[in-house]
Amino acid sequence: MTLEVLGITVLGVFLFGYIIVASIDFGAGFFNAFSTVTGKEHILTKVIQRYLSPVWEVTNVFLVFFFVGIVGFFPKTAYYYGSTLLVPASIAIILLAIRGAYYAFTIYGGLKHKRYTILYGLTGLFIPASLSIVLTISEGGFVTMMDSGPVLDYWTLFTSPLSWSIVVLSLTSVLYISAVFLTWYAQKAKDRAAVSLLRKYALVWAVPAIITAAGIIVEMKGHNPEHYQRLVDVWWLFALSVIFFAGTVFLLWKRLAYGFAFWLLIGQFTSAFLAYGISHYPYLMYPYLTIYDSFTNKAMATALVIAFIAGLCLLLPSLYLLLRLFLFNKAYVQGDRNDHA
Amino acid sequence: MGNEDALFFSRVLTELTLSFHIIYATIGVGIPLMIMIAQWVGIKKNDEHYILLARRWTRGFVITVAVGVVTGTAIGLQLSLLWPNFMELAGNTIALPLFMETFAFFFEAIFLGIYLYTWDRFENQKKHLLLLIPVALGASFSAVFITIVNAFMNAPRGFDLVNGQLVNVSPLLAMFNPAMPSKVAHVVVTAYMTSAFVLASIGAYRLLKGSNHVYHKKALFLTMKLGLIFSIATVVLGDFSGKYLAKYQPEKLAAAEWHLETEKGAPLILYGVLADGEVKYALKIPFGLSILSHSNPNAEVIGLDQFNEADTPPLYIHYMFDLMVTIGMWMVLLSFVYVVGTWRQWQFIFSKWFRWLMVLGGPLSIIAIEAGWWLDEVGRQPWVLRGIMRTKDAATASGHVDTMLWLFAGLYLILGIGSVFILWRMFRRNPVEQELADRAGEKAGVAK
């Protein structure tokens, strides 16, 4: 494995981690707001807040890891993406700030109001939408090279069917991932009413999620034939993904093994993510930037990989402890314990 | 938007974000240590008050951390968005500590979540205290790693530029640059100092506003003692920073001290105004600058006359230096008088006016932090990476930077007002007297 591939693999781990944990977080916030509006908050709010409160900062760190790491491993991305993403990334920061403020002021600070809960829930839809633009831009055709540097063509971006399909995919998968996870979590919390409602959400969002995902492959054919061809080459990974998907839906339908259903979902997204990553190789931004011409020097890459391994040795046990205390601790999950400062 | 405009607004937006973030970042680095000390004292003395102090500080702390996470994410992304050329270079040379900072923060965030939600889970308080150690370590190491990056911007090392190509990159050499030891120590210790004085001003304020509870007196005495220790350390480390500057960044020192002509036995100039190239109305400490720079009253100190004007920073940083040093010295004096006065039972330290001075200490320390960072950042101009890349060559050419500036200004306004309001409300609604009574009631209930 070359250092370039190792670097992009490290970043892929963080990006995938972020996609999963952030989807759970975003979707949970949205369901929480939705239940407040539809008068079902007594069913959902408790389960959702119990899961979210101790882990939200951890979720945010995955994102920071990704963008710090990509500038480290592939410094040229700072130039290409930094110059073009000013507006979309700033909007994403502001939306993330609203979420942070919600935790600071409402969860920790006790400032309760429906308005904030709804605003918070809506950011859960807008953030994935704004962040997904990065994936769209990476497909090429939206950035032109001027004398002053790379410039993003907003008009093309906003009128492109591809960019809207990716936005819709990000929304449906956020809601689907989140609902499946929370069904399992509610099951552990022995909260029957919440299980049945969340299971319904999971089933409702399953179909749109898979349809939009398939739709994007079709869009790609027109937008970026080279990438499309490479996507087709890894058809077997997509097939695997669909099998996992079918498994999750089957288990949810039959009300069986929600934990296993969630792990199947992880399998579905892992294989789809791998297929996407492999077919995108070696481009970071079509056609300007590949992982080879943007790569950092060997000394830095080696240092970063060592730091990554050392860091993981520190973090994995800590993450395990966090999950054990909150996610897999019966007394906590079932609401017998609070112990908040 | 022209490139000139983009540069101007990029600078203003970065200044705004950093000035806002540094308040939360400084508190975020220092307060975990204070909580740790309070909880430890509580366990040692078996005194419920100190444990409650740790608990109440934690509640406030998580709010400032949440805001700090938000502003930290903002600056992290803005570096690439506003200074893409600089970040491309930085990614090649100094990415390692940036990456490690994220790990340190990750570590902190995980254990903060655990610490926060396990207050009554352990029979043994010591076990709970153990969970705080990674929080405090993570917080301090975040500061260490980020300051290393800043030190690198002042004294870039660990690479060579040959015909515009980066060669011989050594990430460790870049990290351990000459600016690193004095800067890291200064930043970490002033964060502890500021946090201690901010917490002290809360205690002093409660005592002023009618509560005469011994809880607040204990809190005030503990934090003022800690503040004294860390402010003395700050003065000593400040001296090291002066010596570093004299050796490696003489133009920054000369601009900060208004040292116009190279001379031996240079005086230290405080305050004053600059008119037609002459310093007027200033307080001059004979031989002061030579001692600060080289520990020798007769040593020669390089003045601004040795530099091209295009390579020196704006001279207003002198006032930032004055502000920082004056507040630092004042806080040493104030905390010293308070601590000695408490031992010797001087009556005036219990007076209203003296308590007001301690209330002011917190905000003043934060102003000193701001002045220090402005001195550091503006004092490095016109360079973003000293001697290698000028600030004007680092900025984005993107449009809409001005719109983003207004957007973020609005965001910080809301976050700033919101966090102060929430903290105020939280402690208003649950004063310590009430919480102590509630806890006593709970315990009695359990005993029955």
Automatic annotation (TrEMBL), chain A:
Gene Ontology cellular-component terms listed: plasma membrane
Intracellular or extracellular location(s): Cell membrane
Transmembrane segments: 6-34, 55-74, 80-105, 117-142, 162-186, 198-218, 234-253, 260-279, 299-323
Keywords: Cell membrane, Membrane, Transmembrane, Transmembrane helix
Membrane topology, record value: Multi-pass membrane protein
Principal place of residence: membrane
Domain of life: Bacteria
Family from the record: Belongs to the cytochrome ubiquinol oxidase subunit 2 family.
Entry protein name: Cytochrome d ubiquinol oxidase subunit II
Organism whose genome encodes this protein: Neobacillus vireti LMG 21834
Automatic annotation (TrEMBL), chain B:
Gene Ontology annotations of biological process type: aerobic electron transport chain
Subcellular location: Cell membrane
Keyword Metal-binding recorded: yes
Main location: membrane
Membrane topology field: Multi-pass membrane protein
Keywords linked to the UniProt accession: Cell membrane, Electron transport, Heme, Iron, Membrane, Metal-binding, Transmembrane, Transmembrane helix, Transport
Pfam family, one: Cyt_bd_oxida_I
A single cellular component GO annotation: cytochrome complex
Transmembrane feature ranges: 20-41, 61-82, 94-117, 129-153, 184-207, 219-238, 316-341, 353-375, 404-424
Molecular function GO labels: electron transfer activity; heme binding; metal ion binding; oxidoreductase activity, acting on diphenols and related substances as donors, oxygen as acceptor
Family according to the record: Belongs to the cytochrome ubiquinol oxidase subunit 1 family.
Protein name: Cytochrome d ubiquinol oxidase subunit 1
